[in-house]
Each structure stands twice: as structure tokens, then as C-alpha cells.
Predict the structure.
Amino acid sequence: AQSVAQPEDQVNVAEGNPLTVKCTYSVSGNPYLFWYVQYPNRGLQFLLKYITGDNLVKGSYGFEAEFNESQTSFHLKKPSALVSDSALYFCAVRDAAGAGSYQLTFGKGTKLSVIP
Amino acid sequence: NAGVTQTPKFQVLKTGQSMTLQCAQDMNHNSMYWYRQDPGMGLRLIYYSASEGTTDKGEVPNGYNVSRLNKREFSLRLESAAPSQTSVYFCASRGLAKHTDTQYFGPGTRLTVL
């Protein structure tokens, strides 16, 4: 079974400060990891993913995430937060060995609020 | 290129009524998915279709049926709606290209069952 934990329901950060949204995961094999963002009344938008290779993954809108195998974490980061980054962020995982369905398991989401 | 489209955007049903949520993608993707999103629960998979002609249950399939009409379209049916099915429903699709492994989501259908 695969699972994802996002330990913070909400993260508040001042505009211009660095931000981190935390994610830890559990899979039986190698993980494929994803971050999605959801703006109010919209669908989920893909931000970035880790499949293999460099542990630091760069994605859209200046976001990046660091894969840490020993801590089973995949935290989302941005050096300087913008008010427009305020949204709901979802971490997702699937087992790389999973065949056929490629089912993703999502975390419960973290609401990011960037304060002007 | 519209991506993933869903109809309707909003719907209000009475308990016991039936309805079908429509989803279509124009990216020539093989796999399609239906999720529901509830506050504090994240997204939970209802049904998926790994390829045209196949469908399988996800985490929360009870009360729902699906049809993969063709490669483009994947519909979700509620035969007898219940208040517990009040939720936001998202359709997603995924391509088969190596290392793609990314699901693309529609804008959602907000369903209220009274």
C-alpha cells in the first residue's frame, strides 16, 4: 500500500520569505512523487515530479522540491513567496513498480497563505 | 487543445435522483480517472480506466458506475444519489509516453445532493 502525509493543514508565510510545504510518503518500492496546486474553484495543476535522478527537482512558477530517500520526504520549496502563490497544495505518490493503473495516492492538502 | 473538459460545472440533485457526469480529453491519453474531493480528505479515486475498454474500481467506488465510451470519453454515473455523494468531482487523464506519468485534471463538477 502507498500513502502520503502532509502534516500541516495550513502554512502562513510573509511575501518575499522562503516557503516550505512538507510531504512524507510510504511505498513498498521506489517512489514516483508529484506536487499539484489548486487555486480556488479550479482543477489541480501539475507543478513538478520526481521520477529518478537528481534529488532536487525544479518545476513551474519557481517551485522546487527535494527528494530525501532516508527521510522518505519530498518537501516543496520556493525561495521567495508571492501573494499569488496562495493556494491549496497536494503531494501525491505512486509505486514505480505499479503496473497498469498508475494510481496516484494524494495527501490531504496544505493551504498556503502568503501574507502581503 | 482544450485538455480535459467536464460537464456540468455545477449540479444540484435530490436524494434518489440519477445523473451522469461527463469527461472528455483531447490529448490522446490512454488512462482516465475519476476522483472526488472532500474537505480535509484530499482526492480519493473512485474508478479508473487504464485503457479503452477497461475499467476498475478505486478506493471509493460504492454508489458509482463508469463507462469508457471511447478513448476520449469517460463518464461517471450516480444511479441513486445520496447526500454523502455531495462533493467536487474531478476527471483526469494520463498519457502512455515513457516518463510522462503525469495526470492532467479537468476543472471539476461541484455536486450537491439534498
In short: The CA atoms of residues 54 and 68 of chain B lie 7 Å apart. Chain B has a mean pLDDT of 92. Chain B touches chain A at residues 4, 31, 40-45, 48, 50, 56, 58, 90, 92, 94, 99, 101-108 (CB under 8 Å). The two ends of chain B are 36 Å apart (CA to CA).
